[in-house]
Amino acid sequence: MRKTVTLQINDKEVKAEEGATILEAAKQVGAEIPTLCYHEELAPYGACRICNVEIERRGRSRMVAACCYPVEEGLKVVTRSPKIDRIRKTIIELAAVTAGEDVAGEMRALASEYNADLSRFRSRVSIKPTNCILCGLCVRRCVVASWDSAIGFLGRGVSRSIVLFPEKAGNCLICSYCRNVCPTGRITSTGPNPPFPHVDDILAGRK
Amino acid sequence: MNAIKRVSSAEDLEKLRRGIRARKEPSKHIIAFCVGTGCIALGAKRVLEETIGEIKKHGLEIRVDVKETGCLGICEQGPMLIIYPEEVPYFKVKPEDAHEVVSKTIVEGKLVERLLYRDQVTGKVYKKIEEIPFYKNQLRLLLENNARINPKNIEDYIEIGGYSALAKALFQMTPDQVLEEVKRSNLRGRGGAGFPTGLKWETTRNAPGEPKYAIVNCDQGDPGAFMDRALVEGNPHSVLEGLMIGAYAIGASQGFVYVREEYPLAAENISTAIRQAEEYGLLGENVLGSGFNFWIGVHRGAGAFVSGESSALMTAIEGNVGEPRPKYIHTAVKGIRDKPSCLNNGKTWATVPLIILRGAEWFRSIGTEGSSGTMIFSLVGKINNTGLVEVPMGITLRDLIYNIGGGIRGGKRFKAVQTGGPSGGFIPEEYLDLPVDFDELTKIGSMMGSGGMVVMDEDTCMTDMARYFIDFLLEESCGKCVPCREGLRVLSKILNDVCEGKGEDEDIQTIEDIIETMKEASLCELGRTAANPLLTSLMYFRNEWNQHIREKRCASKVCKALTSYYIDPAKCQACLICLRECSVGAIQGEKDQVHWIKQEKCIKCGTCYEVCNFDAVEKLSGEHLPPAPKGMKPIRKRKGGN
């Protein structure tokens, strides 16, 4: 059996198994930490940064991603503060730069909760909305579903995008896992702007 | 090269060393050519070929040896060569100088005056390398051997005492003693953050998991930085020796050297060094018969700045896209394939043999209390002596820039110095007397970084420089996390707007909001430190921001959108030069008629400004443009003044 460690989350004492993350431990005390790129069945990725919390360790405090940070003995965690809220708000507003204002799902809910102005930075940069925040959940979920992903990342930095690799389209099991994990509602099989166009055609050998 | 002899004990190594030294003839001349990347670019290879031709012509092949060495530091003065045993240094040598170098200096023993170093400010000529102010004020512990060895020949390195630190560590010290020595030396990582090296080694040593890895970071993508390249190109065995001593202390059996794609010569030299060390029994199975096994592989990067970050570098070595991953568990514990992996900068590894040979106390006696030893900087920008310098920690910026660097080019005024690459900050004039070490630089918003040092003069626009670094990082961000990817995208847009005169007062607040989120919430250090140049620009040069945003003016006249070119009718001699050179036909006028610029046609390329012989072309920013002097006759200057 694994060792347990004791930490404090929002002044409440929590016992958690060694190796667990702050996010997992916080669930025990009902402390809500928002996530966008996290999924229980997938390894933590740490890309959306919305789950940032403040920790105090050896007298020094800093912000860490709750989905990745492993619990430690004596750790003090705060999951909500004016600073955390401010940073989460900015992250949502930044994520909206590419995603656009017309997002659904978890992203929409968080935007209301943190009072984020989705057009704040978007209005400055004129790019076509993609409805995608590049959280990579679909890519990572697809790897698990079919062992060799049919979709993946292309490009670096601001040109990063998610694409269907035509030569790997045969890997697609049409399992809809990617659609189910998407936090912005981008992956819909019926939408007017499907992320992976022609996937059905490719599978059927029509293209 | 003589028949290779595998050395299988410390005594063997000493015997080999004695043999190499005995074969040297002290009366023989050696002409050492710097064939580092900088000098090659300046034509060193042709100088070398010509010189070899001249030696043959004079029939001196038996009396003169030619040696190709790594970077000698003073890149501004290349191609450079040193003639031994007299130690005569020649600078800016052209292929046509080869004849005189051989016929005068080698045959007659006379100096070629014009090839000696001449101080650009005082005009003084120097005959000895150590007297030249650029070298005199340095302490070259890691770089001094560059002048004495051919990096492609292991025997050169063995001759000057190479691998004796490894032998000492393997036969006279336990791994614990090596670790203790490095810990006591207070050596801190030369890659940027200055993490205590001994502590990192200990973490990897104590971490569970086998095999353990030891890795050299030679990624170094900062603009204007080439310290690690010069070291790995010029003295690759010193890096390997340090790596092996470290591996012995850590208990690592596998090593990697990560060399960025843009450093082909470094990759070539380190690969040659590894092969030769293996052939000599200094690397591989049972090193020097000690029972210690260690193998090293070279990994060439795919051209990504972010791969210098430890977790991204290790992801790249694993064969994946070089993207950082969360490292709340340090890479020293869980690195390559989740095994303990100790990553240090090339300069850090190369320092280790010195510490083992000369002791931790000696090392601690150099530098400051918090930062021991020396640091290599690549001193570039608007400075007289561009090049690679090695100085004890704690030297002031003023000493570095004025005594070693020879001051600002063209007698201009110093404005700022940028240390630490895109993660560092701009340091203004008021901090010129600051001692340079890890802690002092961090205090004022910059950082040591891996040793890039870009000097800027009064003609530099600090708003534009902040824009430059943000745009650099925008290109280099991997795009994995939201704060860095989107933060840089928005910052870049705002900064470009400000430089184009489209900035507004509220922009400063927006910038500060984004910076806070990037600093606190980014996944890796690239994003967390990305705003440092911007922050220090805002902190120390706020007046320039106000000029750009409120007055729509760029005082340094760098930002094109805010600058106009104007021909002063009182100075214009109507010589037609600028008119002919203008690529868009924006300059109006004719012979005997003062020229003027049609502003709506001008693309602000600056050609007229550069070609005018009468200083008649001016740059204006924020000032009212006087009307065009159509049809005006020039006021001719009389020959002979007045």
Describe this protein's structure.
The complex is a heterodimer of chains A (207) and B (642). Chain A is α+β, with helices and mostly antiparallel strands. Chain A folds into 3 domains: 4-79, Ubiquitin-like (UB roll) (Roll), CATH 3.10.20.740; 81-129, no CATH class; 137-203, Alpha-Beta Plaits (2-Layer Sandwich). Helix content of chain A is 26%, strand content 17%. Chain A has helices at 22-28, 82-99, 105-113, 137-146, 177-181, 199-203, and strands spanning 4-9, 12-17, 52-57, 60-65, 76-78, 151-154, 161-164. In chain A, a hairpin with a 2-residue loop joins strand 3 and strand 4 (60-65). Chain B is an alpha/beta fold and 642 residues long. Chain B folds into 5 domains: 27-129, Glutaredoxin (3-Layer(aba) Sandwich); 162-364, Rossmann fold; 374-457, Ubiquitin-like (UB roll); 462-551, NADH-ubiquinone oxidoreductase 51kDa subunit, iron-sulphur binding domain (de novo design (two linked rop proteins), Up-down Bundle); 564-642, 2-Layer Sandwich (Alpha-Beta Plaits), CATH 3.30.70. Chain B is globular and about 90 Å long. Classes of the chains: A alpha+beta (207), B alpha/beta (642). The interface between A and B is medium-sized, with 36 and 33 residues.
The coarse silhouette of chain A is globular
Major sheet details of chain A: 5 strands, mixed
Give the CATH architecture of the largest domain in chain B. Answer: 3-Layer(aba) Sandwich
Q: What percent of residues of chain A adopt helix (DSSP H or I)? A: 25-40%
Q: Do you know the CATH topology of the largest domain in chain B? A: Rossmann fold
CA radius of gyration of chain A is 19 Å
The termini of chain B sit apart by: 70 Å
Cα-to-Cα separation, first versus last residue of chain A:
54 Å
Structural class from helices and strands of chain B?
A: alpha/beta
Oligomer: heterodimer
The parts of chain B where pLDDT drops under 50 for at least 5 residues are none
What is the total domain count of chain B?
A: 5
